[in-house]
Amino acid sequence: MVHAILSIEIPDSLWIGAISRAYPEAEIRVLSAVAGADTGVGLVEITCSALDAMVAEIETVEETRDLTVLGQAGDTGLVQFETTEPTLLFPIVGSGIPLEMPFDLQDGAATWEITTSRERLSQLGEELSAFQITYTVEEVRERLKTGSLLTDRQRALVETAHEMGYYDSPRNATLTDVAAAADIAKSTCSETLKRAEGRIIGEYLAEQSADADFS
């Protein structure tokens, strides 16, 4: 079993690739995505200074329909849509790998985190190539034990937050401070910390349960 981080270059032939490059500063967080045989449904959080214009342009895309803005606060909007071109997800479906949600997408590039076997990871590479989607494997780590819970990015962010006093009581640093220090969006910082904290707490509780079983 391996944990891998992949950088996906989305071609302009896919509407999401073209739109994200047209608004390169836009941060798109894919919260949920389901692909069927011919259509797909996505729920995304978009942060963009030209949010209204970007959403309006997505509505004009031939491959999208039933777009709904579920909520908006400033430059950030929660958008749900249906698409007749869920091609980006076909390699995941074809390889049978569960894709960790959410994942981020900006300026035509997406970051995927997956945990699978080396055989399925290799199959994913073949599926991506078949759909002419280029990718780079940024990191591959063996997961031989449950203690290897955090990715390097998660571990680095947790360490930064700890060093800055984010976990002190009272706190000596805010989420905004940690995000600025890590040079990432506040929403990305929050989600990464939550995911890391959830894994740390889950591992701790599992260890406590195991200790109780053997006591």
Write the layout of secondary structure elements.
Layout: E1 2-9, H1 15-22, E2 27-35, E3 40-47, H2 51-60, E4 64-73, E5 76-83, H3 90-95, E6 103-106, E7 109-116, H4 118-130, E8 134-142, H5 152-164, H6 175-182, H7 186-214
Antiparallel strand pairs: 1-7, 1-8, 2-3, 2-6, 3-5, 4-5, 6-7
How would you sum up this structure, described in words?
- The chain has 215 residues and is α+β, with helices and mostly antiparallel strands.
- The chain folds into 2 domains: 2-142, no CATH class; 152-214.
- 40% of the residues lie in helices and 30% in strands.
- It has helices at 15-22, 51-60, 90-95, 118-130, 152-164, 175-182, 186-214, and strands at 2-9, 27-35, 40-47, 64-73, 76-83, 103-106, 109-116, 134-142.
- It has an 8-stranded antiparallel sheet with strand order 4-5-3-2-6-7-1-8, with helices on one face.
- The longest helix has 29 residues, at 186-214.
- 23% of the residues are buried.
- The model is unreliable at 209-215 (pLDDT under 50).
